[in-house]
Amino acid sequence: MTYIQLILLCIYIIADYITDCVFTQRGNRKIYLTCAFEFPEQINKYLCLSYKKRLFTLSQTFINNRSTMNFEINENQKMIADMIRKFGEEHIRPKMMEWDEAQTFPIEVFKKLGELGLMGVLVPTEYGGSGFGYSEYVTAIVELSRICGSIGLSMAAHNSLCTGHILAFGNEEQKKKYLPKLATAEWIGAWGLTEVGTGSDSGGMNTTAVEDGDFYVLNGSKNFITHGKSGNVAVVIARTGKKGDSHGMTSFIIEKGTAGFTSGRKENKLGMRASETTELIFDNCRVHKSQVMGKIGDGFVQAMKVLDGGRISIASLGVGIAKGAYDASVKYSKEREQFGKPIAQFQAIAFKLADMATEIEAAELLTYKAADLKNRGEKVTKAGAFAKYYSSEVAVRVSTDAVQIFGGYGYTKDFPVEKYYRDSKLCTIGEGTSEIQKLVISREILK
Q1: Which residue segment(s) compose the domain that 46 sits in?
Q2: Which of 436, 325, 335 is nearest to 388 (CA)?
Q3: Could you report the per-residue pLDDT of 413-432, keeping only the tens digit for each?
Q4: Catalytic residue, candidates 143, 195, 418, 431
Q5: Which end of the chain is more exposed for a tag (fewer CB within 10 A), N or C?
């Protein structure tokens, strides 16, 4: 809506107030008008029709503008994307295969990302964060993952899980204590929900927290925990009630060094090898009640809300990996020649690239739509599942086609697409498998 239209709308609204006209918006988006003043019939009819016509047009413009997503990339997003590309070429790309081979978690890189404000993207400035919204957050993950999925994954897990959980459900004292350290990467965060016997069935967890005076005593273990060894603090969900009771689990903030709290085996993974994944072990770990987040029994509900936002993170990760594989494929197909011409000129390759580009575009739109809803404080359960499910599967399809375009070279570690191929599969598993996303989506659409 232009400023002139806004001024006109205000004038008409004032006039409406004077004549005590009542406007109601119905489900079919038509505007109805009735006048309370007893004008002569012809004048009253003229006023009502005139106002109706003008206000309907302006109101529809206003309504449509409010409900339409803005597809423009804002200046913050442009700045973040440019900054990450430069940072990645200098600090990530030269060593990422070395980290991948050795399964090295490059903590120094995350310290530098903290200096750039990328480890507290969503954290308000009052707690030492960047104070951006989800659109900027998505851009940051996409651009990092476009270079290296492992770095994108660890950055996303730190921001949306541990840090995001404290931001959403911590009390003021907890926020002031932990968010400034997490937002600057002075501390690295971990988040513990999954267990060996309870992956998708997280409600059936076995890790318990038993009340003992001013403390809770935790026993059990968590599995597949990002930053389980290197993390300085972890948000852990443990059972305080009956097994299977969605209101029988509680969230705890546990610092590294707490007695009875240790890390276990480090996983030897197919992909995302530079993103650390380990066990967390609790052996009579005493945690003070001041470390409880929210109410006793709210842990599972909190975790599901955290995962709603976390799925936007994984969707972004999938988009970034797909873009990286696609970029490499386009470049290679223009350079590689067979039968006297670049393979990009063969329809078999060109059509693969067309499919890849189309699916990436669709995945990106779903992801930014979910981010937009999150920014506006609306429910994102369905939109987040849409984005996570589709983007994850696109990442796998695009990286698979990328390997095919590279042919034999795509199967070697001399070229980048085999890493995108290995990294992509995690997107369909972590923070809710593709099957769980279908379950979430089907429940939402059948309500």
Answers
A1: 3-67
A2: 436
A3: 999 999 999 999 999 999 99
A4: 431
A5: C
